[in-house]
Design goal:
The protein is mainly alpha-helical. The chain has one domain.
Length: 138
């Protein structure tokens, strides 16, 4: 799956080469990076791994999840996305309107990535997902 993602990133990078607006590439890189860092944090250990909602036939996968405590990597990841979002949202005098909008989009997506990783650090009650679990089990 990673090879397909890297091939897609390479194709998008090739498609936007020489273009003035590379927002598609930066958005794809940010989404892929957030996805990979979330998977890495799940492996290292987070409080809210979601393992308790696995169906019985997938319970053997729980052993690949880290301990039910937040690893230091999670806090580093949240801080990195937060700092990157703030850096992208700082106005630059050399930016035109398009550049400001591109930075705003990337900054907003990076802040959402920080919030998403923050949800991994909080213990959410299982009853929040109970309706969806009942529908999925028939």
């Amino acid at each position: 799956m990673t090879a397909l993602a890297l091939a897609t990133i390479g194709a998008v990078a090739w498609g936007v080469r020489g273009a003035r607006n590379r927002l598609a590439l930066w958005t794809l890189l940010l989404f892929w990076g957030a996805h990979q860092s979330a998977k890495l944090n799940l492996f290292v250990g987070v409080v809210n791994s979601g393992a308790e909602i696995f169906p019985p036939y997938l319970e053997h996968l729980v052993r690949y999840f880290g301990p039910e405590r937040n690893a230091p990597l999670l806090w580093v990841t949240i801080a990195a996305y937060g700092v990157f979002a703030l850096w992208m949202l700082i106005p630059r005098s050399a930016d035109d309107n398009g550049g400001r909008m591109r930075r705003l989009v990337i900054g907003a997506l990076a802040s959402l990535a920080a919030v998403e990783h923050g949800f991994l650090a909080t213990r959410l009650p299982i009853m929040l997902w109970e309706l969806f679990l009942r529908v999925g089990r028939g």
